[in-house]
Automatic annotation (TrEMBL):
GO MF annotations in UniProt: electron transfer activity; FMN binding; heme binding; metal ion binding; oxidoreductase activity, acting on diphenols and related substances as donors
Membrane-spanning ranges: 12-33, 53-70, 82-100, 116-134, 155-173, 179-197
A Gene Ontology cellular-component term: plasma membrane
Localization per record: Cell inner membrane; Membrane
Family: Belongs to the MsrQ family.
Descriptive protein name: Protein-methionine-sulfoxide reductase heme-binding subunit MsrQ
Membrane-protein topology: Multi-pass membrane protein
Boundaries of every Ferric oxidoreductase domain copy: 53-163
PANTHER family: PROTEIN-METHIONINE-SULFOXIDE REDUCTASE HEME-BINDING SUBUNIT MSRQ (PTHR36964:SF1)
Pfam families (alphabetical): Ferric_reduct (PF01794)
GO biological process: protein repair
Amino acid sequence: MIAQRINGALRPVPTGLVYAAGLLPLGLLVWQAATGGLGVDPVKGIEHRLGELALQFLVGGLVISPLRWWTGINLIRFRRAVGLLAFFYVCLHLAVWLALDLQFRWAEIGADIAKRPYITLGMLAFAAMIPLALTSNNGAIRRMGAAAWTRLHKLTYAVALLGALHFLLLVKAWPLEPILYMAGVVALLSMRLWRTLRRRA
């Protein structure tokens, strides 16, 4: 009954509010950049914060299904918005790295992608997100068919894992934060695997 009331309260919420709320961290980041609140290296601060926001939205998207399974709270209608916000922040993260950090020095960019594992993984995650973003609409579902569309969007699991690995390998001292992100992604994917195996059994 409580879950039904919660669901009923959430159904009228327009998806546009999810997008608006998802852009608030960007507004805060712009404010911090304009007021000098990002430290001595603001470019790195912006780059890392955008990447972290992208990972947070990816994890948020993975949370939606288990939340429905075990609490009855149904946020499925917002999952597309959460995924597109993740892609938006990934694009900004990449743009800052290309334009502000490396200033379009293409030889250096290519060398970094080839030689630095965390950048290689990040670029793989970005490449996998492109077809997901392009097909995140009702027209794509109709054209592809629900079964094919669902199979394609299982790439989300690989993207989240690659994103967490990208963050984990980026840091050198192994602080707690990236470890927690990796543990969260692994736990959420394990829940899905356990539920799939249980249903088949």
